[in-house]
Amino acid sequence: MRLLPIAALAATVARLSSSTASAQNPALAAVDRYVRQEIRRERVPGVSVAIVRKGKVVLARGYGYANLELHAPATDSTVYQSGSLP
Fold this sequence. Notes:
Elements: H1 10-14, H2 26-41, E1 46-53, E2 56-67, E3 72-73
Antiparallel strand pairs: 1-2, 2-3
């Protein structure tokens, strides 16, 4: 099982504040770019990401597919089946 290298996000996530949930936030845009790059590089079909800062969700998003056969998109609340990892 492979996990995205979350440690590389630490500096970016540290710049997030609970009042910057806007998609216009450069730090959130950097996280978005990083996740998209990693899922392409690692050939991950889908992943859900959440970042919580001081008890508030600042980013919750799904990337790729929750189900490849059905082309069902991943969301921030996707429940992945066990054993569905490559």
